[in-house]
Design goal:
Chain lengths: ~120, ~110
Protein backbone atom coordinates (compact mmCIF):
# COMPACT_ATOMS: atom_id res chain seq x y z
CA UNK A 1 0.00 0.00 0.00
CA UNK A 2 1.31 3.44 -0.98
CA UNK A 3 1.77 5.44 2.18
CA UNK A 4 3.73 7.84 4.31
CA UNK A 5 4.61 6.30 7.66
CA UNK A 6 5.21 8.68 10.51
CA UNK A 7 6.21 7.77 14.04
CA UNK A 8 5.42 8.19 16.82
CA UNK A 9 1.74 9.20 16.78
CA UNK A 10 1.95 10.76 20.23
CA UNK A 11 4.93 12.00 22.18
CA UNK A 12 5.27 13.80 25.49
CA UNK A 13 8.76 15.01 26.30
CA UNK A 14 10.58 17.47 28.52
CA UNK A 15 12.23 20.71 27.52
CA UNK A 16 15.72 20.22 26.14
CA UNK A 17 15.57 16.49 25.51
CA UNK A 18 16.48 15.78 21.90
CA UNK A 19 13.93 13.88 19.87
CA UNK A 20 13.42 12.62 16.33
CA UNK A 21 10.16 12.10 14.50
CA UNK A 22 10.59 9.64 11.67
CA UNK A 23 8.96 9.79 8.25
CA UNK A 24 9.21 7.22 5.51
CA UNK A 25 7.44 6.94 2.14
CA UNK A 26 7.27 3.96 -0.21
CA UNK A 27 6.16 5.76 -3.37
CA UNK A 28 9.58 6.85 -4.67
CA UNK A 29 8.51 10.48 -4.23
CA UNK A 30 11.17 13.10 -4.71
CA UNK A 31 9.61 15.91 -2.69
CA UNK A 32 9.08 15.60 1.06
CA UNK A 33 8.03 18.18 3.58
CA UNK A 34 7.27 18.74 7.26
CA UNK A 35 4.39 20.88 8.52
CA UNK A 36 3.07 21.90 11.87
CA UNK A 37 -0.57 22.60 12.62
CA UNK A 38 -1.53 24.94 15.44
CA UNK A 39 -5.03 26.03 16.48
CA UNK A 40 -6.30 28.92 14.35
CA UNK A 41 -3.40 28.67 11.92
CA UNK A 42 -3.09 26.81 8.65
CA UNK A 43 -0.49 24.14 8.04
CA UNK A 44 2.88 25.85 8.13
CA UNK A 45 5.91 24.40 6.41
CA UNK A 46 8.97 23.72 8.55
CA UNK A 47 11.42 22.21 6.06
CA UNK A 48 11.24 20.56 2.70
CA UNK A 49 13.45 18.41 0.52
CA UNK A 50 13.52 18.34 -3.26
CA UNK A 51 15.57 15.14 -3.38
CA UNK A 52 18.34 13.22 -1.61
CA UNK A 53 20.77 15.57 0.14
CA UNK A 54 18.72 18.61 -0.94
CA UNK A 55 16.87 20.30 1.91
CA UNK A 56 15.70 23.84 2.53
CA UNK A 57 13.91 25.93 5.11
CA UNK A 58 10.21 26.52 5.00
CA UNK A 59 8.30 29.25 6.79
CA UNK A 60 8.99 28.20 10.40
CA UNK A 61 12.34 26.35 10.53
CA UNK A 62 13.70 27.69 13.84
CA UNK A 63 14.41 24.96 16.35
CA UNK A 64 14.23 22.12 13.82
CA UNK A 65 16.65 20.13 11.70
CA UNK A 66 16.07 17.60 8.94
CA UNK A 67 18.13 15.25 6.83
CA UNK A 68 17.54 13.39 3.57
CA UNK A 69 20.19 10.73 3.24
CA UNK A 70 17.89 8.33 1.42
CA UNK A 71 14.98 9.08 -0.86
CA UNK A 72 12.41 7.34 1.33
CA UNK A 73 13.29 8.85 4.73
CA UNK A 74 12.97 12.41 5.98
CA UNK A 75 13.32 12.62 9.77
CA UNK A 76 12.51 15.76 11.75
CA UNK A 77 14.93 16.48 14.58
CA UNK A 78 14.32 18.72 17.56
CA UNK A 79 17.74 19.18 19.17
CA UNK A 80 16.42 21.04 22.23
CA UNK A 81 12.62 21.04 22.27
CA UNK A 82 10.79 23.91 23.91
CA UNK A 83 7.12 24.25 24.94
CA UNK A 84 6.38 26.47 21.92
CA UNK A 85 7.09 23.44 19.74
CA UNK A 86 4.07 21.68 21.19
CA UNK A 87 2.03 21.06 18.07
CA UNK A 88 0.60 18.56 15.61
CA UNK A 89 3.21 17.63 13.01
CA UNK A 90 2.65 16.16 9.57
CA UNK A 91 5.11 14.71 7.12
CA UNK A 92 4.02 14.78 3.48
CA UNK A 93 5.45 13.65 0.18
CA UNK A 94 4.76 14.52 -3.43
CA UNK A 95 5.93 12.85 -6.61
CA UNK A 96 7.78 15.78 -8.14
CA UNK A 97 6.80 19.24 -6.93
CA UNK A 98 9.48 20.93 -8.95
CA UNK A 99 8.27 19.74 -12.32
CA UNK A 100 4.55 19.70 -11.78
CA UNK A 101 2.29 21.60 -9.45
CA UNK A 102 -0.52 19.12 -9.96
CA UNK A 103 1.14 16.46 -7.83
CA UNK A 104 -0.53 16.82 -4.49
CA UNK A 105 0.58 15.56 -1.14
CA UNK A 106 0.26 12.22 0.55
CA UNK A 107 0.29 12.91 4.26
CA UNK A 108 1.53 10.85 7.15
CA UNK A 109 -0.79 10.11 10.05
CA UNK A 110 0.53 12.96 12.19
CA UNK A 111 2.51 13.25 15.41
CA UNK A 112 1.04 15.08 18.35
CA UNK A 113 3.99 16.42 20.32
CA UNK A 114 3.75 17.91 23.80
CA UNK A 115 6.83 19.55 25.31
CA UNK A 116 6.54 20.21 29.05
CA UNK B 1 3.78 36.70 2.59
CA UNK B 2 1.29 35.02 0.31
CA UNK B 3 -2.16 34.59 1.80
CA UNK B 4 -4.72 31.90 1.12
CA UNK B 5 -8.03 32.55 2.83
CA UNK B 6 -11.01 30.32 3.42
CA UNK B 7 -14.51 31.19 4.53
CA UNK B 8 -16.41 30.51 6.58
CA UNK B 9 -14.13 29.29 9.34
CA UNK B 10 -16.76 26.80 10.46
CA UNK B 11 -20.16 25.67 9.32
CA UNK B 12 -22.93 23.62 10.90
CA UNK B 13 -25.59 22.18 8.61
CA UNK B 14 -28.37 19.65 8.92
CA UNK B 15 -28.16 16.30 7.17
CA UNK B 16 -29.52 16.68 3.66
CA UNK B 17 -28.64 20.37 3.32
CA UNK B 18 -26.42 21.49 0.50
CA UNK B 19 -23.55 23.78 1.36
CA UNK B 20 -20.61 25.59 -0.15
CA UNK B 21 -17.51 27.39 0.99
CA UNK B 22 -14.79 29.50 -0.53
CA UNK B 23 -11.04 29.53 -0.99
CA UNK B 24 -9.43 32.83 -2.04
CA UNK B 25 -5.90 32.98 -3.40
CA UNK B 26 -3.64 35.42 -5.27
CA UNK B 27 -4.62 35.50 -8.93
CA UNK B 28 -1.07 36.16 -10.12
CA UNK B 29 1.48 33.36 -10.69
CA UNK B 30 -1.24 30.72 -10.61
CA UNK B 31 -0.12 27.12 -11.11
CA UNK B 32 -2.83 24.99 -9.53
CA UNK B 33 -5.20 24.81 -6.59
CA UNK B 34 -5.55 21.73 -4.42
CA UNK B 35 -8.44 20.77 -2.16
CA UNK B 36 -7.97 18.38 0.76
CA UNK B 37 -10.41 16.75 3.15
CA UNK B 38 -9.21 16.33 6.73
CA UNK B 39 -11.22 14.21 9.11
CA UNK B 40 -10.57 14.49 12.83
CA UNK B 41 -7.80 12.17 14.06
CA UNK B 42 -6.78 11.36 10.49
CA UNK B 43 -4.45 12.97 7.97
CA UNK B 44 -5.52 15.25 5.10
CA UNK B 45 -6.50 13.44 1.92
CA UNK B 46 -6.45 14.88 -1.58
CA UNK B 47 -9.85 15.71 -3.08
CA UNK B 48 -9.23 17.74 -6.22
CA UNK B 49 -6.47 19.40 -8.20
CA UNK B 50 -7.65 22.28 -10.34
CA UNK B 51 -5.53 23.97 -12.96
CA UNK B 52 -7.62 25.75 -15.58
CA UNK B 53 -9.85 28.78 -15.23
CA UNK B 54 -13.43 27.59 -15.35
CA UNK B 55 -12.43 24.08 -14.26
CA UNK B 56 -15.13 22.08 -12.54
CA UNK B 57 -14.35 18.81 -10.79
CA UNK B 58 -16.77 16.37 -9.21
CA UNK B 59 -16.45 13.40 -6.88
CA UNK B 60 -19.78 11.95 -5.81
CA UNK B 61 -21.74 14.68 -4.02
CA UNK B 62 -18.74 17.00 -3.81
CA UNK B 63 -17.78 19.38 -6.58
CA UNK B 64 -15.46 22.33 -6.99
CA UNK B 65 -15.12 25.25 -9.37
CA UNK B 66 -12.20 27.51 -10.14
CA UNK B 67 -11.89 31.16 -11.16
CA UNK B 68 -8.21 32.03 -11.62
CA UNK B 69 -8.86 35.55 -12.89
CA UNK B 70 -10.52 36.67 -9.67
CA UNK B 71 -8.66 34.22 -7.45
CA UNK B 72 -11.27 31.98 -5.87
CA UNK B 73 -12.50 28.42 -5.80
CA UNK B 74 -15.81 27.13 -4.46
CA UNK B 75 -16.37 23.71 -2.92
CA UNK B 76 -19.96 22.45 -2.99
CA UNK B 77 -21.44 19.54 -1.10
CA UNK B 78 -24.89 18.41 -2.22
CA UNK B 79 -27.12 16.69 0.31
CA UNK B 80 -24.61 16.73 3.18
CA UNK B 81 -24.23 13.58 5.24
CA UNK B 82 -22.69 13.16 8.72
CA UNK B 83 -19.69 11.44 7.13
CA UNK B 84 -18.94 14.68 5.27
CA UNK B 85 -18.02 16.27 8.60
CA UNK B 86 -14.38 17.29 8.26
CA UNK B 87 -12.11 20.26 7.76
CA UNK B 88 -11.71 21.19 4.10
CA UNK B 89 -8.37 22.72 3.19
CA UNK B 90 -7.28 24.44 0.03
CA UNK B 91 -3.60 24.73 -0.90
CA UNK B 92 -1.81 26.93 -3.41
CA UNK B 93 1.58 25.81 -4.75
CA UNK B 94 4.18 28.55 -4.82
CA UNK B 95 7.60 28.80 -6.39
CA UNK B 96 9.64 31.85 -5.57
CA UNK B 97 13.13 32.92 -4.66
CA UNK B 98 12.61 31.48 -1.19
CA UNK B 99 11.72 28.00 -2.31
CA UNK B 100 8.80 25.84 -3.20
CA UNK B 101 5.86 25.29 -0.96
CA UNK B 102 2.18 24.66 -0.72
CA UNK B 103 0.54 27.52 1.13
CA UNK B 104 -2.48 26.16 2.96
CA UNK B 105 -5.59 28.06 3.90
CA UNK B 106 -6.78 27.81 7.52
CA UNK B 107 -9.59 25.47 6.51
CA UNK B 108 -13.37 25.36 6.79
CA UNK B 109 -14.61 23.03 9.50
CA UNK B 110 -17.90 21.43 8.45
CA UNK B 111 -20.19 19.70 10.92
CA UNK B 112 -23.19 17.85 9.53
CA UNK B 113 -25.82 17.20 12.17
CA UNK B 114 -28.00 14.08 11.81
Amino acid sequence: EAQVTQNPRYLITVTGKKLTVTCSQNMNHEYMSWYRQDPGLGLRQIYYSMNVEVTDKGDVPEGYKVSRKEKRNFPLILESPSPNQTSLYFCASSLNFGASHVDGYTFGSGTRLTVV
Amino acid sequence: ILNVEQSPQSLHVQEGDSTNFTCSFPSSNFYALHWYRWETAKSPEALFVMTLNGDEKKKGRISATLNTKEGYSYLYIKGSQPEDSATYLCAFPVRDNYGQNFVFGPGTRLSVLP
